[in-house]
Amino acid sequence: MIEQEWAILLARIQFAFTVSFHFIFPAFSIGLASYLAVLEGLWLKTGKGVYANLYRYWLKIFAIVFAMGVVSGIVMSYQFGTNWSVFSDKAGPVIGPLMAYEVLTAFFLEAGFLGVMLFGINKVGRKLHFVATLMVAIGTFISASWILSVNSWMQTPVGYAINEAGQFVPAAGWWEIIWNPSFPYRLAHTVLAAYLTTAFAVGAVGAWHLLRDSANPGARKMFSMAMWMAAIVAPTQIFMGDLHGLNTLEHQPAKVMAMEGHYDSHPNGAPLILFGIPNSKEKRVDYAIEIPKASSLILKHDADAPLAGLDTIPDEDEPPVGIVFWSFRIMVGLGFAMMGLGLWSLVARYRKKLYDWPLMHKAAIAMGPSGFIAVLAGWVTTEVGRQPFTIYGLLRTADSASPLDAPAVAFSLLAFVVVYFTVFGAGVWYLFRLAAKPPEAHEPEPQHAPIRSAGITPAPAIIDGEIEKGEAQ
To answer: In the chain, which end has fewer C-beta atoms inside a 10 angstrom radius, N or C?
Structure first.
């Protein structure tokens, strides 16, 4: 029994490790694909070369991020078959088709236009190339939608029946399964998080180059666009997070209890615990710093509204409070810090100091990784808060794992750690090298494709964002 528990624990650690590595790349590529579409659209509309140069600059980074996201994502399906075969068998009739739809719609769309987007900038017409960029951006959104629909169904399962083999099967049509109760909120919250992740990464790169050359037009433009995104999207994300939290309270109350650190029920208004040390053994939060009745005000919009605590949940059904409690605070804290930097940028913009406040630029650099940390903290809150279930309230994690020995899982976990840090470490190092170079007036095109295809005359070349008609070769 002890060895089986160790095997399940190692399998959970392995999945958490690989999915965390994977998640940071789609979170970046979703936002970056949309940013590229905006840049190319602005170039087509205005003809200003700075947009075309920034497009080329970030296109190279997008290519690396997209590739690492695809490679790391393959491991997910591998682990479903090796470490979680019982879950795959029981939930396969529901989640299998949804995952297949993701491949048939989003992945094929991305793959079909990615080559044109990466290597066709001087080989096809401007409008056709813009269409390719749009299709890749739309494809990343569709991909995220299918994956989040699957995850949301695992969080709030509806529209299912259980057949004689103990499998979950569709009962009332696919529409109810796809648009399950938590899906719209999780989709909006995650996509906005991806946009913020990209905005703060772009803003950090722009700030880095502004500190070295405040007159660089590319650095100015990318920093300005990133700060607009922070100022507008960060408050929107906080509002959407509140709606998502209310939905979670309705469908997964134990998760919210863990997030809030409410071990006890509060019949006359629950306090908002800002900080403290959850003590699950004694069922309390030690050294708690709290605001009386503020949790009821936030969650129920009534300071005196009663809120149930974990004392109403059987001990075996409680999520790990300590992890959920702190990951939630990291996510929320970074969200307010993002909004703070966005508001700071508005003040700087009003005073015409957006490019001349080194302290704000240094703060933007420090906030560069904040989006990645926040999405990981949010993902931990979502997934650990669902425990001890893989399908909430229906299928326990302990009953979902493959019958593997602990040493076998430990060996594969060690192999993943070594390979991931080696391969993806090299990829991240190369990304930093690309970002360390300032955007130039004539960004070179990636040299990984033939200059022309047989029988096709290249379109006019883009020189510094302007059109210069080239002679037929």
So the answer is: N
Read off the pLDDT of residues 100-117 as tens digits, 9 standing for 90 and up. 888 888 888 888 898 888
Query: Residue 352: exposed, middle, or buried by beta-carbon count in 10 A (0-12, 13-18, 19+)?
Result: exposed
The CA radius of gyration of the chain, in Å to the nearest whole number, is 24
Crossing angle of helices 2-46 and 126-155, rounded to 10°? 150
Mark 203-239 as b/e (b = at least 16 C-beta within 10 Å). bbbbbbbbeeeeebebbbbbbbbbbbbbbebbbebee
Residues facing 307 on adjacent strands: 266
The conformation of residue 399, written as its DSSP 8-state character, comes to G
* DSSP secondary structure, 228-280, as one string: HHHHHHHHHHHHHHHHHHHHHHHH-HHHHHHHHT--S-BTT---EEEEEEEET
Residues, the chain, total? 473
What digits encode the pLDDT tens for the residues 109-159? 888 898 888 888 888 888 898 999 999 999 999 998 999 999 999 999 999
Instruction: Spell out the residues 6+ positions from residue 374 whose beta carbon is closer than 8 angstroms to its own.
Output: 193, 196, 197, 330, 331, 334, 335, 338
Identify which of 240, 249, 377, 256 has the alpha carbon closest to the alpha carbon of residue 319. Answer: 256
What global pTM score does this model have? 0.87
Half-sphere exposure of 112 (CA within 13 A, CB side): 12
C-alpha distances in angstroms, 78 versus 23, 81, 242? 16, 6, 35
Exposure on the CB side of residue 272, measured as CA atoms within 13 A = 16
What's 390's DSSP letter? E
Contact call for residues 222 and 389 (beta carbons, < 8 A): no
Q: How far is CA 78 from the centre of its chain?
A: 21
Interior angle at CA 227, CA 42 and CA 246, nearest 5: 110
**Residues 196, 374: contact at Cβ < 8 Å?**
yes
* CB-side neighbour CA atoms (13 Å) of 338: 37
| Residue 222 and residue 440 in contact, taking contact as beta carbons nearer than 8 Å | no
Three-state DSSP at 314 gives coil
- For 407-433, letters b (16+ CB in 10 Å) and e give eebbebbeebeeebeeebeebbeebee
For residues 174-192, give the mean pLDDT. 93
